Amino acid sequence: MQTQLPRTFLETPSGRRADQILRRCVHCGFCNATCPTYLERGDELDGPRGRIYLIKEVLESGSANRVAAKHLDRCLTCRACETTCPAGVEYGELAEIGRDALRDSGALKSSWITQLLLVLVRHPNWLRVMMTLGRYMRFLLPTSLRETLTHIPRRGEATGTEDASILIMRGCVQCVVTPEVNDHLAGLLERRGIAFQFSDETQCCGGMELHAGRHHVALNQMQRNIDALDPSTVNTVISTATGCGVTLKEYGRLLGSEDGQAFSAKIVDAAEYLRSHTFTKQRKDVSRVAWHAPCTLQHGQQLRGVVESILTKTGYELVPVEDAHLCCGSAGAYSIEQPELSRQLRQRKVDLLTANQPELIATANIGCQMHMGAIAEIPVVHWLELLR
Length: 388
Ligand code: SF4
Ligand code: SF4
What we know:
Blueprint: H1 7-10, H2 13-24, H3 36-41, H4 48-61, H5 66-73, H6 80-84, H7 91-105, H8 112-120, H9 124-136, H10 143-146, E1 166-169, H11 174-177, H12 180-191, E2 197-198, H13 207-211, H14 215-228, E3 236-239, H15 242-248, H16 251-255, H17 258-265, E4 267-269, H18 270-274, E5 288-291, H19 295-300, H20 306-314, E6 317-318, H21 334-337, H22 339-354, E7 360-363, H23 366-373, E8 380-382
Parallel strand pairs: 1-2, 1-3, 3-4, 5-6, 5-7, 7-8
Helix pairs in contact: 2-7, 4-5, 4-7, 5-7
Bound molecules: iron/sulfur cluster (SF4) (2 copies).
One iron/sulfur cluster is lined by residues 25-31, 48-49, 52, 85, 87, 89.
């Protein structure tokens, strides 16, 4: 694709990167075939190829392009298009740059609920209080929020060991909504004699800020996380929420610093860490499981088949799931910003997951778990729960 980005923009790292990515796109449109919003709406501008053109227009003109903002807002940043693209176009990175430009021009704005959520994820105690109040006053909340309050958290009990070389990243929303997930991992490590410590509760990865186009706030949060880690003690950081994991692994690229790269090199998803271990099947009442690979795992981290292999070796039967590459519609604050499209995608996903009569759905990200759990007629659990 030919580009004519302004010279001043080309002198910045974002400008050079955008130019490089845009030039890689050969307009073939293969990516549209796996884009959930294109499949749902059938509109070229709601597919990756159309959005790439819109981002190019925004970056070339620098204008507050409201059409581009509308269609970019409908993008889930699921990155299924990246997995499909034969030319290696890094759409996710380009969308980040496009969103930043749109936010700077005033064309892209977050709703008040998203802005409130962005504050709450940095203050888990406030989030805990708000969720408790929300359960009592559900009737006052918008449907998108009301539906996510169905899960009653079981308070995490594991404490960890100070100065251990392995750190479990708690995750901001996950440590409030499903604290038991980190407890499951802690229990599995303890049983194998592996010492670990937990991250501070306030260490949000910055992913939600990044997707909302608040780049600078996100980068500050990331730097705080790096500064909070003692690199001489911790050599591995395990993430149990794939939405956090994908962002943590990108600190090096996003910050463009050596300490960012060193931090990212320590990040592993729980599945990567546990893949060489063997487990005993704990849920004797369950044999047929539908696996939902979050986009942040299969497209963002390009980790496919690892959880599947662990669960199968442990004795669970994974039922076939059609269109497994498609997003469930959760995608950070997407269910709040785009409630109708998000619900359509969720219904389609849950129908596909339950088509072959599984007894439960297993996944690896808190957003997907809450989003699908609100309507699925079978339990939706984190896969670690099946091992412990
Ligand atoms: S598949 Fe890749 S090269 Fe083809 S239109 Fe999509 S992004 Fe561009
Ligand atoms: S990130 Fe997902 S929703 Fe956005 S253009 Fe790519 S495939 Fe479509």
